[in-house]
Amino acid sequence: MIVAIDGPAGVGKSSIASAIAREMNYFNLNSGNFYRAVSLLLLRSNLSFQDEKKAVELAKQTEMEIRENRLYMNGEDVEDELHSDAVDKIVAQVSAIVPIRHIVNDKLRNISHTLDLVAEGRDMTTVVFPQAEVKVFLDASPEIRAERRFKQGVSDLDYEDILEGIRQRDVIDRNKEEGSLIISEDALYLDTSALTLEQVCEKVTGKIKELN
């Protein structure tokens, strides 16, 4: 079974997908980390995402795999470097490059062939896994999402800067040439603004159990 979860930046997709995967004993597939890995690679290589030809070529040559729910790039565990402020600053632009989306989507689909999984991202329900048995769209206001991210303490930015970054990310995500953030017609829509993680997970796992 494939459970596909979409939603904007900071809505809690990763935490919710991880919790659901643990409860259901499914594989947790975080699509955003693949784009973050490409972004990290560009930063390390001193390449700009604006040089799309070189960025795409670099992505093609890069091996990415998941081992024990951690992302490895060319054999190196880079999981702990994927959520830096520097990566956050460019990942939306990197993920908007269409050939890079194709490269990442192929990797995601290859992983899904033999697994029950929870996949989360921006276009899991609409582009990558339109055949998913369970589709979910998580939402919350930009202010709520910025507050959550600020309280996580993973960024050196203050609340206002995080909020502005989220608003900019929303504009980019909703206006991508391919893989833009939209709500699939057959997705379960959940506004998580007033819900706890446990309440969201209960609603999604309930949907999964209905089909099992």
Automatic annotation (TrEMBL):
Q: What is its EC number?
A: 2.7.4.25
Q: Name one GO molecular function term.
A: dCMP kinase activity
Which example biological process does GO assign this protein? pyrimidine nucleotide metabolic process
Top-rank taxon of the source lineage equals Bacteria
Q: Does the keyword ATP-binding apply?
A: yes
Q: Where in the cell is it found?
A: Cytoplasm
Q: What is the first-listed, main subcellular location in coarse terms?
A: cytoplasm
One GO CC term on file: cytosol
Work out whether the entry's keyword set contains Transcription: no
Keywords from UniProt, A to Z, are: ATP-binding, Cytoplasm, Kinase, Nucleotide-binding, Transferase
Where's the Cytidylate kinase domain?
A: 3-209
Residues binding ATP:
G7, P8, A9, G10, V11, G12, K13, S14, S15
* EC class (word): transferase
Instruction: Write down the chemical reaction(s) this protein catalyses.
Output: dCMP + ATP = dCDP + ADP; CMP + ATP = CDP + ADP
Per the record, the similarity remark reads:
Belongs to the cytidylate kinase family. Type 1 subfamily.
Q: What is this protein called?
A: Cytidylate kinase
User: Which organism does this sequence originate in?
Assistant: Oceanispirochaeta crateris
Q: Could you read off the lineage of the organism from its UniProt record?
A: Bacteria, Pseudomonadati, Spirochaetota, Spirochaetia, Spirochaetales
